[in-house]
């Protein structure tokens, strides 16, 4: 028989979206109208309109235990509507709601929690169209691989006419994690037909072509901060027998974030910054209009890229620009600019400057060494020296008390070189500005 399911990633009820200007929030009806509570309400409507058989919640439904009452209120009203429409609701607990979601499930009979206490559990939909297997966090920091439990294999071996759908919240393919790490290879070998994942807020779910089972993160239900770019919303999954025939994300999130690149190479003055941003915003809206769904507000961050002859003036213009003044209302949506980042380079003739015997010349030679051919022995030795100095400074910074407990990934030579290149070019541009007689710009 045909089966339709609405699968929902991290909701974080009780949290309000960050970095939304107060005037934008006010025009949109308040921060709550752009946050998880509104997104959950829209999900309920979508489930009813799409006539799904079940709604599946992949953990972190509530932001934390201090949000119990907020979670109760939002969940209870939504569950009642789903129950009245004959729609079942199943969930697993994540690291944020390890205590609060089981407590809510005990009080809300319409919510079926799977795998409480870190023990794999299975359940069938009332109409017998699907079988679910799920695992919930027993503690917030679950430093285990839950998929190594033999009980999971036993549950997945049960023969069933419909799909066996796995529900799991944690870190996929990470060697170190405090949040239930597991591997793609292990998920593929266990026997479930589909794996729906929570925890990571960027959606990665795919239908699983070329013989691979469908697996991936559903993403957060709505964007919670500017790093959560792109489409967000629940996933509508349709099955024929055990086969997933449709996997479609519904763009119902009330808030969307994007990060755009804006080339500055052709700009002759820094005055082109604001019209350039506005033009790029309009182009984005025209290009992505169909994917914006029912977003009430769209926040944008810009990376200026390329090479500029007016880079110093451009840096000053970025500092002066009032991003809160960049507002556009298009198709009844509010577009706003949150930040502008300078990733551009000054247009400098390093080869010419490097021939000088002054500080700009010395700095230019070092910058050239960062990009020198491996066959240039002298430059290669200088590149190694510069990278060693940079790595030493990185290590010293990471060892400071304010950063020691954050953890850090290893920095590659190319990443270090990019940092040195950016800082060095900016410093050289400032040095050149003190010597106007030098013909250094390209």
Describe it for me?
The protein is α/β, with parallel strands linked by helices and 442 residues long. The protein has three domains: 248 residues, Metallo-dependent phosphatases (Purple Acid Phosphatase, chain A, domain 2); 92 residues, no CATH class; 84 residues, no CATH class. The protein has twelve helices and 19 strands. The protein has a six-stranded mixed β-sheet. Strands 5-6-7-10-11 form a five-stranded mixed β-sheet, with helices on one face. A hairpin with a 6-residue loop joins strand 5 and strand 6. The longest helix is centred in the C-terminal third of the chain and has 22 residues. The chain starts with a strand and ends in a 9-residue tail after the last helix.
Number of strands: 19
Total of DSSP H or I helical runs spanning 4+ residues = 12
Strand fraction equals: 15-25%
Helix content: 25-40%
The CATH architecture of the largest domain: 4-Layer Sandwich
Physical arrangement of strands within the biggest beta sheet: 4-3-2-1-12-13
Largest sheet: 6 strands, mixed
Shape: globular
List the helices and strands and how they pair.
Layout lengths: L1 E7 L13 H7 L7 H14 L4 E4 L10 H17 L3 E4 L8 H8 L3 E3 L7 E4 L6 E4 L15 H7 L7 E6 L1 E2 L8 E2 L1 H7 L3 E5 L16 E3 L17 E6 L2 E7 L5 E9 L9 H16 L8 E9 L1 E2 L2 H10 L6 E4 L2 E10 L2 E2 L3 H4 L5 H12 L6 H22 L14 H21 L9
Parallel strand pairs: 1-2, 2-3, 3-4, 6-7, 7-10, 8-9, 10-11, 14-15, 15-18, 16-19
Antiparallel strand pairs: 1-12, 5-6, 12-13, 17-18
Helix pairs in contact: 2-3, 10-11, 10-12, 11-12
């Amino acid at each position: 028989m045909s089966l339709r399911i609405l699968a929902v990633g991290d909701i974080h009820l009780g949290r309000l979206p960050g970095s939304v200007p107060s005037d934008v929030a006010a025009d949109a009806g308040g921060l709550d109208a752009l946050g998880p509570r509104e997104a959950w309400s829209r999900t309920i409507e979508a489930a009813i309109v799409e006539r799904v058989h079940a709604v599946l919640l992949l953990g972190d439904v509530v932001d934390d235990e201090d949000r119990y009452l907020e979670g109760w209120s939002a969940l209870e009203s939504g569950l009642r509507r789903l129950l009245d429409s004959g729609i079942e609701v199943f969930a697993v607990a994540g690291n944020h709601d390890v205590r609060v979601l089981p407590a809510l499930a005990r009080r809300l009979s319409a919510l079926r929690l799977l795998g409480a206490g870190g023990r794999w559990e299975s359940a069938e939909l009332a109409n017998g169209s699907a079988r679910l297997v799920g695992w919930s966090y027993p503690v917030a920091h679950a430093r285990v691989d839950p998929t190594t439990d033999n009980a999971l294999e036993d549950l997945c071996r049960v023969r069933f006419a419909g799909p066996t759908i796995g529900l799991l919240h944690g870190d996929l393919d990470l060697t170190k994690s405090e949040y239930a790490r597991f591997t793609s290879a292990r998920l593929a070998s266990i026997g479930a037909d589909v794996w729906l994942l929570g925890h990571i807020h960027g959606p990665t779910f795919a239908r699983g072509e070329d013989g691979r089972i469908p697996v991936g993160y559903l993403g957060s239900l709505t964007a919670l901060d500017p790093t959560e770019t792109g489409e967000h919303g629940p996933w509508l999954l349709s099955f024929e027998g055990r086969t997933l025939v449709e996997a479609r994300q519904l763009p119902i999130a009330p808030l969307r974030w994007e990060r755009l690149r804006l080339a500055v190479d052709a700009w002759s003055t820094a005055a082109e910054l604001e019209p350039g941003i506005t033009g790029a915003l309009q182009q984005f809206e025209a290009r992505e209009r169909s994917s914006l769904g029912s977003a009430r507000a769209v926040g944008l961050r810009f990376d200026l890229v390329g090479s500029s002859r007016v880079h110093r003036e451009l840096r000053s213009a970025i500092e002066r620009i009032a991003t809160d003044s960049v507002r556009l209302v298009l198709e009844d949506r509010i577009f706003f600019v949150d930040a502008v980042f300078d990733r551009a380079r000054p247009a400098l003739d390093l080869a010419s400057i490097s021939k000088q015997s002054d500080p700009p010349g010395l700095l230019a030679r070092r910058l050239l060494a960062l990009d020198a051919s491996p066959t240039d022995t002298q430059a290669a030795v200088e590149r190694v020296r510069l990278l060693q100095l940079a790595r030493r400074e990185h290590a010293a910074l990471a060892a400071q008390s304010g950063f020691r407990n954050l953890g850090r990934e290893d920095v590659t030579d190319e990443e270090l070189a990019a940092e040195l290149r950016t800082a060095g070019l900016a410093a050289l541009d400032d040095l050149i500005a003190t010597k106007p007689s030098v013909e250094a710009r390209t």
